[in-house]
Hints:
The protein has about 160 residues and is of the alpha+beta class. About 30% of the residues lie in helices and about 40% in strands. The chain has four helices and eight strands. The longest helix is centred in the middle third of the chain and has 18 residues, at about 50-65.
Amino acid sequence: MDLSHRVSALIEPTLTDMGFDIVRVQLSGKTRLTLQVMAEPVAGGDMTVESCAAISRAISAILDVEDPISDQYTLEVSSPGLDRPLVRRRDFERYSGFEARIETSTPLDGRRRFTGRLGGLTDDRIQLSSDSETWNIPYDYVDRAKLLLTDELLAATEEQRTDD
């Protein structure tokens, strides 16, 4: 289990109890490490500065006791934002119909970068369509994926805020 997964496993129960879902845990940097924890409210709605601060305090307490990272690091807690990364299988379902960019670790049809409209996830394959092509990208091939900031995404986000 790599360090990011270990940290995620350590903090997930506490964040769940607090009403938050982990979107991504990422450790980056070589000489100056940054532990980025991206979270969102389980019930939907906006992630506030107060929420980030509460999560940061809770995570710091856990990591101080468990001490999974031997080097000095900076903890950064944030929301996924509008042009959020797509990390979990359910992200590809939840944001079906929106524009996304996917980069694969393994070439597919001779390429690694794809942009199009998400069509969901079926049989562990992400459907992505452009005006001229449709790809079925194996979930395990995904290196990076994120929503693209479009007027459609902005409108959907604003509509969700007014419904809450």
